[in-house]
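Tutorial, part two.
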Amino acid sequence: MLGKLQRFGTIVSFIALLAITIPAVAQETGRELKIIGTYQIEQGKRHGWLIVNLEIPPGSHVYALTQEGNPPPTKIKVAESESYELLRGFQANKAPHVVEHDPVFGQRVESHEGKVAFMAPLRVAEGVDLQNVVFDLKFHGQVCNDSGCIPVFNRPVEINFAGFYDKEEKAEKEGKDQ
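Running the prediction step on this input gives:
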């Protein structure tokens, strides 16, 4: 019994060390991924855009939402809510960089570098304050460079109201010109 407890303690210590070390390694290597979440609502309506902007460190990349197989794709998970409805999944504001046959993975690989915005149309339920919608959003992915990848799993993303927009002006999609 004591042996099992010691092994359990060792495992718990190792996991705690990883939880501290992985973010520190990411910062030391300059691979800290900046994630900024916002939403905008069309003036006079109850629909708009949920936007997740990524600032990917120089020399690094994240895999596209559309990546198939290995490496795994980036995922943005939004919990269901009675306050809002996503009308379809997230899409990137720009096409990913594509390598048709990556020599490491032996398949097509799609990735993003620099800045990219992932956007999904949404509708806010009647009776919900448009400027105070609460989202439960988590980011899953990897920040990779030539030295390897650092996982970013289950990272909560705070979503802030970015204002109303006129339909003629379109949504001011923060990553559009990036």
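Residues 2-28 form the longest helix (27 residues). In part three we will examine how such features are distributed along the chain.
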